Amino acid sequence: MTMRRLINLKRVEARRIYLTYAVVIVAYAVCQVMSSTKFLSSSMRGMLVPICAYMVMAVSLNLVVGVLGELSLGHAGFMSVGAFSGVAAAIIMQKTITYAPLRLAVAMIIAAIFAAIAGFLIGIPVLRLKGDYLAIVTLAFGEIIKSVLNNFYLGMDSGGLHFSMLTDTTRLLKGGRLIIRGPMGISGIQKIATFPAGFILLMISLMIVFNLVNSRSGRAFMAIRDDRIAAESIGLDITKYKMMAFVMSAALAGAAGALFAMNYSTIVANKFDFNTSILILVFVVLGGQGNMLGSIIAAAALTILPEKLRQFSEYRMLLYAVILIVTMLATNNAEIKEFLGRLNPFRRKEEAE
Amino acid sequence: MSKKIFVCAVMVLAMAASAFGASFKIGATGPLTGGAAIYGMAAMRGAQIAVDEINAMGGIQFELRYEDDTHDAEKAVNAYNALKDWGMQVSMGSVTSKPCEATAAENFADRIFALTPSASSAAVTEGKDNVFQMCFVDPNQGTASAQYIGEKGLAKKVAVIWKNDDVYSKGVYDTFAENAGKFGLEIVSTTTFADGNDTDFSVQLTDAQNKGAELVFLPMYYQPASLILAQAQAMGYAPKWFGIDGMDGILTMEGFDKSLAEGVMLLTPFNADAKDDRTVKFVAEYQKRHGEVPNQFAADGYDCVYAYCQALTQAKADPSEDAESLCPKMIEQFTTMVFNGLTGENVRWSANGEVTKDPKGMVIRNGAYVGLD
C-alpha cells in the first residue's frame, strides 16, 4: 500500500519524503556512533531524547498548521495529557511489565490514546471555528488542560486506583502511592525513555503523517486549506477531515509527551504552558509550514542553540532572539532564497521537469 | 614598560595555571533569569563570597560555576550536563525544588555528590544517598510552624492561605494542616490561589475574617504575601501574620511599604540583622558587592561552600580526584560532621540527606527583623 502510494507520487514529492527519512536515519546513526565512542559531550547526550520529542511535536503540529492550515496554540496541552497519562500508566505497570522498553512502548500508546480522546473532545467545539477564533480557543483549552492537571490527584493502593480533584481526598491505604500530586506533578519517575525509542517514535510519526498527507484525506486537508468554500461545494465533509487531522496530531503529541516526561525524574503541568506551545509553533514556522524535514531540523537547532549559547550567560536569551529574527528575515528574503536555490542541485532539475 | 607587562602576564598565567591544577570544581544550577531569578542570583552571590574568602585564605581552593536553569527541570538537566562537561567534582544541585529533583536524579545516577542550598521538597533527597540539603525540608517547616504557634500560644483559630500550584506552598500546607490539631490549633479557614489569579485576595481575606481567625498562616513566597498584607490593611483586618522562609526578602522588595509588615512573624534560619561576627561580615561584604541586604538563599549558598570546605578538608581529599571517588568520602563526612554556619549552629545531616537545625522565630519591628525569643 505504502509502496504503491509512493510510486504513484510525483517525483518531486517522493524525493522530498525519501530525503526526510534518509536525513533522520543518517542523523540517528551518526549520533549513536558518536555517543557510543564517547565523542558526544554529556550536554549533547542529555538532549537527544528531548530533541526527538520536540521533533515529533513539530511534525504533529505541522499536520494541523501546515497541511490543514489551522493555527493551533494549545499543542503543549496534548503533550501534557500524554505526559501525565503515559507516566501514570508506566508507574502502574511497573510491577506487571518488568521489561522497560515494552513498558515505555505501552505507556506511549496509552498516552497517545488519552491525548487523542482529549483532542476529540476539544475538537468538537473548536473545529466549528476558523482562523483567529480557532487559534484563541485552542490557546484557552491549552490553559484549561494545565489547570485541570494542576488540581488532579491520582493514587494507587491495594484497593485499586483513586482520584480526586482540587484537594487530595484519595485516602490511600498503607503502602499506597500518590502518583499525580496536583501542583507537585509526578515525582520519582523511572527514566526509561531512550534515544532509540525516540528515533522509532519519530520514524512512525513521519510514516503516519506522510501517508496521511498523500492519501485521499490528505488531499482533502489541502483542499480545505486552500479554499474552504470550494472544498465544501464539491461535497467534502469539512468537520470530519479537520477532526481527523486534529485527533491524529493530538495523539502523536501525546506519545511525544510521554517520551519527554520519562526522560526526567519529575514532571509538572506548568512545564506545558503557553510558552511551550509557542516554542513548537516556532519550530513549524521556522522550518516551513507543510515542510516536515524543515520542522525537524528547526526543532533540533532551536533546542541545541540555547545550550550552545551558555557561554554568553545572561545575554543568552537575547542572542537567541536575535538569531531567530535574523533567520526569519533571511529565509523570507527572495534574493537569499534564490541564492540558496542555486546551490541546491535538485532544484534546477525540478524546474526543468 | 613592556617588560613589566610581560612579567605581569607571566605571573597571571602562572597563578591561573596553579589555580587550575589545585582547585575543587563546584558546579551548580539555579534560576539566574526569569521569575525565580532573585533566589538563584542570591545563592550564587552568597556562594561566590564564600569561595573568594576561602581562596584568599590560601589553603583549599575552589572554583565555582553557576549555570542558568530558568526554574525548569528540563533546562536544569541541560545545565547539569554542561557542568559535567566542564569537569564538576562536587555539585550544589539546584536552587529551587523541582529543577533540583531532576538534577538530583542525575547526581544519583552519575555518583556526583550534591548539597543543595535551598531546594526544600522532600523528593529531592528521597531514595538518594548522595544528595543533601542545607535548608529545611518543606514538611518540616509546616510542622515547625504549627509547633511554634501552638507552644508559644500565639493563636487558637488559624486561617491558611496557600498557593495551590506551587510545590513549596503545598508541601508546607500539607504538614501544617496535618499537625495543627496536635498543637491545639484549629484551622477555621483554608483558601488558595494560583499563578494568574494572585493579585486579588479579598475573597480569601474575607473568609478568614468572617470565620474569626486570630492568626493567618502564609506558606508562600513574599510577592503574593506583600499584596495580602496591603489588601488586609485596606479592608481593616488586622490578625497576626505568620510566614515561613519564603517571606524573607519582603523588606527589601522594591516599592513595598515596610509599615505593612509590622508585626509579621516568620520562621527562618537566617537573620541578616544578627550581631555575630560572621553574619555582620557576610552582610557587609554582600552589601558592598551588590548593594542590597542578603536573604536566606544567599546565606544558604555561603554555608554550602563552607560545608564543602570543612568536609573536603576533613576527608583529606585531593583536587585531582574525580567526582566518583569523592562521592563516598563526602557521604561519610556529611553524615558524621557537625557544621556551624550562618543559617544555624550545630547543623547535622541524617543519612537520608535531611538537615537538622533549630528554626529561629523572627518578627518584623520598625522595618527590621528581630529575634522572637
Chains forming the largest contact: A-B, 33 and 34 residues
The CATH architecture of the largest domain in chain B would be 3-Layer(aba) Sandwich
Number of contiguous helices of chain A: 15
Order of helices and strands of chain A: HHHHHHEEEHHHHHHHHH
CATH fold call of the largest domain in chain B: Rossmann fold
In CATH's first tier, which class of the largest domain in chain B applies? Alpha Beta
As laid out across the biggest beta sheet of chain A, the strand order is 2-1-3
Summarize the amount of helix of chain B as a percent range: 40-55%
Query: Major sheet of chain A: size, sense and barrel closure?
Result: 3 strands, antiparallel
Question: In terms of topology, how is this protein built?
Answer:
The complex is a heterodimer of chains A (353) and B (373).
Chain A (H helix, E strand, L loop, with lengths): L1 H7 L2 H26 L5 H26 L7 H18 L7 H27 L4 H20 L1 E6 L2 E6 L11 E5 L13 H19 L2 H11 L1 H6 L4 H24 L12 H14 L4 H17 L7 H16 L2 H10 L1 H8 L1
Antiparallel strand pairs in A: 1-2, 1-3
Chain B lengths: L1 H20 L1 E8 L6 H21 L3 E8 L4 H14 L3 E5 L2 H14 L3 E3 L14 E3 L4 H14 L5 E7 L3 H14 L5 E8 L8 H9 L4 E4 L3 H13 L5 E4 L21 E4 L8 H14 L5 H19 L8 H14 L2 E3 L2 E6 L5 E2 L3 E6 L2 E4 L2
Parallel strand pairs in B: 1-2, 1-3, 4-5, 6-7, 6-8, 8-9, 9-10
Antiparallel strand pairs in B: 10-14, 11-12, 12-13, 14-15
Helix pairs in contact in B: 2-10, 3-4, 5-6, 10-11
Which characteristics define this entry?
heterodimer, A: 353 residues, mainly alpha, three-stranded antiparallel sheet, 15 helices, globular, B: 373 residues, alpha/beta, Rossmann fold, 2 domains, 11 helices, 15 strands, 45% helix, 20% strand
Give an overview of the whole structure:
The complex is a heterodimer of chains A (353) and B (373). Chain A has 353 residues and is mainly alpha-helical. Chain A has a domain at 40-272. Helix content of chain A is 71%, strand content 5%. Chain A has helices spanning 2-8, 11-36, 42-67, 75-92, 100-126, 131-150, 195-213, 216-226, 228-233, 238-261, 274-287, 292-308, 316-331, 334-343, 345-352, and strands spanning 152-157, 160-165, 177-181. Chain A has a three-stranded antiparallel β-sheet. In chain A, strand 1 (152-157) and strand 2 form a beta hairpin. In chain A, helix 3 runs antiparallel to helix 10 (238-261) and helix 4 packs antiparallel against helix 5. The longest helix of chain A has 27 residues, at 100-126. Chain A is globular. The mean pLDDT of chain A is 86. With 373 residues, chain B is of the alpha/beta class. Chain B has two domains: 2-136 and 276-356, Response regulator (Rossmann fold, 3-Layer(aba) Sandwich); 139-268, Rossmann fold (3-Layer(aba) Sandwich), CATH 3.40.50. Chain B is built from eleven helices and 15 strands. Chain B has helices at residues 2-21, 37-57, 73-86, 97-110, 138-151, 167-180, 202-210, 222-234, 277-290, 296-314, 323-336, and strands at residues 23-30, 61-68, 90-94, 114-116, 131-133, 157-163, 186-193, 215-218, 240-243, 265-268, 339-341, 344-349, 355-356, 360-365, 368-371. Chain B has a seven-stranded mixed β-sheet, sandwiched between helices. In chain B, strands 2-1-3 form a three-stranded parallel β-sheet. The longest helix of chain B has 21 residues, at 37-57. Chain B is globular. The model of chain B is unreliable at 6-20 (pLDDT under 50). The chains are: A mainly alpha (353), B alpha/beta (373). The A-B interface holds A 41-43, 45-47, 50, 147, 150-151, 166, 181-185, 187-188, 191, 264-271, 307, 310, 313-314, 316-317 and B 32-33, 67-68, 72-74, 77-82, 84-85, 98, 101-102, 104-105, 109, 121, 123, 126-127, 163-167, 170-171, 194-195.
